[in-house]
């Protein structure tokens, strides 16, 4: 066992560490939620990972995103995160793809290799729905993040089925779209039961694929990412 994993091994044991080292995770979206999920998986010893995002760091990301610094403004998020993950675990087998996903892209990625788990941290509805639909169609294990914006209470973050979500406009939109294609339940999600502050939402016209901007606090998206990673780690290390 590498020394940097010794504390993890002390907690969960060599057998579970081995399962993590042999696992392959796809993380789609590396912003406020996804980057933290990817890093927590990497630090736990996940051996293979693909990270995908088509965005670059902007100044407004600095309040909450792991890879957002004044020195990284304008750089691809996947590029910065990939360097960081390799510095944590030089042995990780890592693919970093800087691109926005179309429906055909998602099908190609999901068919390209075998993933043990997919983490959906996309905040744009169309590709999010396509990723979820295609994972369910292929019986790929997936956990999806709902909205972290407009909220401040970490105690209100929970796991649930998409059919059980409430007080979340993103979850409502996801439910509606999935129901229109015959999917009513069976998607595991992380969401907050806290009602979002409506005053924290403003219309926007200068952001790609977004009609509104939602206020955020530093720790909430990070905690969503940690919840996603914790769930995946637990599932991978469970006894078969």
From TrEMBL:
<dbReference type="Pfam" id="PF00899">
    <property type="entry name" value="ThiF"/>
</dbReference>
<keyword id="KW-1133">Transmembrane helix</keyword>
<feature type="domain" description="THIF-type NAD/FAD binding fold">
    <location>
        <begin position="11"/>
        <end position="239"/>
    </location>
</feature>
<protein>
    <submittedName>
        <fullName>tRNA threonylcarbamoyladenosine dehydratase</fullName>
    </submittedName>
</protein>
<keyword id="KW-0472">Membrane</keyword>
<dbReference type="InterPro" id="IPR045886">
    <property type="entry name" value="ThiF/MoeB/HesA"/>
</dbReference>
<feature type="transmembrane region" description="Helical">
    <location>
        <begin position="214"/>
        <end position="233"/>
    </location>
</feature>
<dbReference type="InterPro" id="IPR035985">
    <property type="entry name" value="Ubiquitin-activating_enz"/>
</dbReference>
<dbReference type="InterPro" id="IPR000594">
    <property type="entry name" value="ThiF_NAD_FAD-bd"/>
</dbReference>
<keyword id="KW-0812">Transmembrane</keyword>
